[in-house]
Amino acid sequence: MSRVVVNLPQRARRGEIIEIRTLAAHAMETGFRRTHLGEPVPRDIITRFTCSYNGVEVFSADLHPAVAANPLIAFSTVATESGTLEFRWTGDNGYSAAHSVSIRVD
């Protein structure tokens, strides 16, 4: 399990647009580099990120080798009701990370 950081408001008003920022600690090896012996370094990247709000997917992104290490993903959604936002990162070599955060909507 890698380290992930999620930043979003704990409370919001119904209908308010909230900004969500996520960061996953991952080296993101592209697979294009070679070792000092000339052998290719195997690709190891995060390939997919999803965010669900009370079980409904509100954002997803497919990531590719050009994405930097420790990818920061920022997006917005509308606060509709109190509940849980679930974040999931998946990638090469069985990589998987998940995190959830509760939000209170008044």
Helix-residue proportion: under 10%
Distance between the termini: 34 Å
Unreliably modeled segments = none
Q: What value does the Rg take, in angstroms?
A: 16 Å
Number of strands: 8
Q: Give the spatial strand order of the biggest sheet.
A: 2-8-7-4-5
Number of helical segments with 4 or more residues: 0
Question: Average pLDDT, to the nearest integer?
Answer: 95
Give me the secondary-structure category: mainly beta
What is the strand and helix layout of this fold?
Elements: E1 4-7, E2 11-12, E3 17-24, E4 46-53, E5 56-62, E6 72-78, E7 83-91, E8 96-105
Parallel strand pairs: 2-8
Antiparallel strand pairs: 1-3, 3-6, 4-5, 4-7, 7-8
Describe the structure in your own words.
- This protein has strands at 4-7, 11-12, 17-24, 46-53, 56-62, 72-78, 83-91, 96-105.
- It is built from no helices and eight strands.
- A hairpin with a 4-residue loop joins β7 and β8 (96-105).
- The protein is elongated.
- It is mostly beta strands and 106 residues long.
- Helices cover 0% and strands 52% of the residues.
Defining key terms:
elongated; 106 residues; single chain; three-stranded antiparallel β-sheet; mainly beta; 0% helix; five-stranded mixed β-sheet
Summarize the structure.
This protein is mostly beta strands and 106 residues long. The chain has strands at 4-7, 11-12, 17-24, 46-53, 56-62, 72-78, 83-91, 96-105. The strands form 2 sheets. Strands 2-8-7-4-5 form a 5-stranded mixed beta sheet, with no helix packed on it.
